[in-house]
Design goal:
Distance between the termini of chain B: 16 Å
Structural class of chain A: alpha/beta
Radius of gyration of chain A: 28 Å
Shape of chain A: elongated
Number of helices of chain A: 26
Strand content of chain B: 35-45%
Oligomer: heterodimer
Distance between the termini of chain A: 71 Å
Number of helices of chain B: 2
Strand content of chain A: 5-15%
Strand order of the largest sheet of chain A: 2-3-4-1-5-6-8
Shape of chain B: globular
Radius of gyration of chain B: 11 Å
Largest sheet of chain B: 5 strands, antiparallel
Number of strands of chain A: 10
Structural class of chain B: alpha+beta
Helix content of chain B: 10-25%
Chain lengths: 625, 76
């Protein structure tokens, strides 16, 4: 038996779902789609198991955004159609939330209604006659506070009772029926809701709104100050708070690899396992601390209701580049990692705006680029004045945002695509987030990110390992012999690519490092160490120092220095723009449902990066740098 | 009179919406139906969206959206 929780955005549905399932649920994809929903098995009082699914918030049964569309498919299709719809509505928002409930009844679902926020209804000075509302609507109604675990049994009892009912399948095509609603039908629904509420809702006393936080959060000056403080806090947390954790993860994987080297028999297979598989997993795992912190903070901002205010605040600047306030969260997340950022773009209603947002997400400086920029910036700036390096890093971040803005503006100006410039967003009441709900949802989001990314990253890491560790002559006498780097397949590819990277000031070795960066951008640094034959060092700092010393003396075949300032600046520019990350391409394909978009984005951004980088390097060379 | 012409603190009721059907339907389903009481609360910073209260909820909407909504007599 299937039960679906359905409700308007911000109705308290997720809190209820967590209460019912004891926060034990799994996130799964809708059939044939990448949109996820949460699913759990519920034990009913009768002892029966029922499959319960949570759905994204729906303002109405007429879909606007991609995730709403997929949710509706699951509700309408006969195979996935729920046997019971648990409609959820905020009891302080009945005059709007009952609209969806009436649509659900109209389609003929076997429905029961759970009203949330009983505490807030009471403190707002209202009382609700639940029995009378039940009579008016003709369906079972329960008023609860889902933040209190005591109400769980009452909900389960009612659900068990209602599962006996049937969907009334009178409509041949419910989707078309809802889509055909006219203005007067919608207005009639709202008039009917007003009539019912006049009957069941009584106001005892006029209560003032709680402290008017919005006077500050949306104040012309203080609003911006708070916004900037929040963003600074978010970035600081992602970088400073995550740093020790990232180091710990890095250390753990290095230790694992050294253990494997020590105890596994020496052969290419164990090297493949240790360097290729475990190394590849480690390359992904180092980002987990940052991603967890990002999910926690975004969760706090979302649950508290601030995120919607932030989106309203940033809407005007984003409108100037063809986007709207809803692109705020995806673009913000892009500074940690493009993969969860692209997933966050699902809530943007218009397809053009959604793709445009996804298109510029890779231009935001993601955390995988930090090791690369760190290496190049430290190489370029004198060691005794660290502030120049800090300034340069800030500049790189700002430049990434500016470039995203320029690209978005150009695309939306020249695409001629018909867009609506509409932006309407509900600002939910501000409230304290629940720690448990927050942690559970962070856990699930992180798990789903790891599941999505692991396969691709391990495969690419193994392939790249093989390219470096095998060559045309490695099995000549029937025994594996590790080739010198010059004789590996990777070097062969590097030489083929040499004409492409040569204008960027690099030789074939730089080409190899750039290719390997496609597994994950930060692999560039370890590949550089490999192709420039930097000896093993005890820790990261010593390795970076050794690599920089090697880079200072590395020369082209004609004896000229490779890493001149022009080459390094060109590399920085290339890394800012190029879509050098296969996991992101895979995500773009899955989210857009289009290879054309994903590959177009890959070639457009990487091509643009190459052109601009070559122009910069050649220009600087004329200036003698 | 349009919703976009209301001043801070002013209240009025929705008369009608003049927009393409998709946009109109979205506004209707958010509760901007004939007779709904709307209070203008202010404007988001940086000349951003208008903040109004409609049917008990705060809603941010662009001036271009607010222009589509025709309002009735001002209430005190």
């Amino acid at each position: 038996m299937k039960i679906a929780l359905v409700g308007s955005p911000n109705c308290g549905k997720t809190t209820l779902f967590n209460l019912l399932t004891g926060s034990k649920y799994e996130t799964v994809n809708y059939p044939g789609a990448t949109v996820e929903y949460a699913r759990a098995n519920l034990r009913l009082p009768s002892g029966d198991l029922a499959e319960c699914m949570d759905t994204p918030g729906l303002p109405s049964l007429q879909a606007l955004s991609a995730d709403e569309q997929v949710t509706l498919n699951a509700l309408y299709n006969t195979e996935t159609r729920p046997d019971l719809v648990v409609a959820v509505a905020d009891s302080t928002q009945l005059s709007r939330h009952l609209y969806l409930v009436r649509q659900l009844q109209e389609v003929g679902y076997n429905t029961l209604l759970i009203l949330t926020m009983a505490d807030q209804l009471k403190s707002s000075g209202h009382s609700l006659d639940v029995d009378l509302l039940q009579d008016h609507l003709g369906l079972p109604v329960l008023l609860i506070d889902p933040r209190k675990s005591s109400c769980k049994d009452a909900v389960l009892d009612l659900m068990a009772l209602c599962l006996g009912g049937q969907n009334t399948e009178t409509l041949v095509n419910p989707r078309a029926h809802i889509a055909a609603h006219t203005e007067s039908q919608i207005e009639e629904h709202f008039r009917e809701i007003d009539r019912i509420l006049a009957d069941v809702l009584t106001q005892h006393e006029e209560k003032k709104e709680q402290w008017p936080w919005d006077q500050v959060l949306l104040h012309p000056v203080w609003g911006i100050v708070v916004f900037l403080l929040m963003m600074t806090g978010l970035y600081s947390a992602i970088f400073w708070l995550a740093a020790p954790l990232t180091d710990a993860v890095d250390g753990t994987f290095a230790w694992l690899m050294s253990l494997m080297d020590q105890y596994l028999p020496h052969s290419w297979i164990s090297a493949l396992l240790s360097e290729g598989v475990v190394g590849g997993l480690g390359a992904m795992a180092v980002f987990i601390p940052q991603i967890v912190i990002l999910f926690v903070i975004l969760g706090i901002l979302e649950e508290s209701g601030y995120l919607a205010r932030g989106a309203a605040l940033i809407d005007r600047p984003l409108a100037a580049i063809g986007l709207n306030g809803r692109a705020f969260v995806p673009l913000l997340s892009g500074h940690a990692c493009a993969i969860p950022a692209m997933m966050a773009a699902r809530t943007i209603p218009g397809r053009f705006e959604r793709l445009l947002t996804m298109g510029i997400i890779p231009l935001m400086t993601c955390s995988a680029r930090i090791p690369v920029f760190f290496l190049l910036v430290s190489f370029l700036t004198p060691a005794d004045s660290a502030w120049i390096g800090g300034l340069a890093m800030t500049g790189i971040y700002l430049l990434g945002i500016i470039m995203g803005a320029v690209v978005a503006t150009l695309i939306h100006r020249f695409s001629g695509s018909k867009r609506s410039d509409s932006f309407v967003l509900e600002l939910p009441a501000l409230r304290m987030p629940l720690a448990k709900v927050l942690l559970v949802s962070t856990w699930h989001k992180t798990k789903s990110y790891i599941q999505k990314a692991t396969g691709t990253i391990v495969i690419i890491s193994v392939v790249l390992w093989a390219l470096v560790n095998f060559g045309p002559h490695s099995f000549e006498n029937g025994v594996y012999q590790k080739p010198e780097i010059e004789e590996s397949f990777a070097a062969g590819m590097g030489r083929v690519l040499e004409p492409v990277v040569e204008p960027m000031g690099l030789d074939w070795r730089g080409g190899v490092a750039l290719i390997s960066g496609f597994a994950a951008r930060e692999v560039f640094v370890s590949s550089m160490a490999l192709v420039y034959r930097v000896d093993e060092a005890e820790d990261d700092d010593a390795r970076t120092q050794k690599l920089m010393d090697t880079m200072r003396t590395a020369v082209h075949a004609d004896g000229s220095l490779i890493f001149k300032p022009s080459t390094c600046l060109g590399l920085i520019l290339f890394y800012m723009i190029a879509l050098q990350c296969f996991p992101t391409v895979a995500t773009a394909r899955a989210e857009s449902g289009s290879w054309k978009f994903a590959l177009g984005q890959l070639f457009a951004l990487t091509g643009l990066a190459w052109l601009l980088s070559v122009a910069l390097v050649q220009g600087l060379r004329i200036l003698g740098l | 009179m349009r919703l976009s012409e209301l001043k801070k603190g002013q209240k009025s009721r929705v008369c009608s919406i003049q927009a393409e059907w998709d946009q109109k339907r979205r506004l209707l389903e958010l509760g901007f139906v004939q007779g709904s009481r709307v209070e203008f609360l202010g404007r988001a910073p940086l000349c951003g969206p208008l903040i109004v209260r409609c049917r008990g909820t705060k809603i941010a909407l662009r001036p271009s959206d607010a222009e589509c909504i025709a309002m009735g007599e001002m209430e005190s």
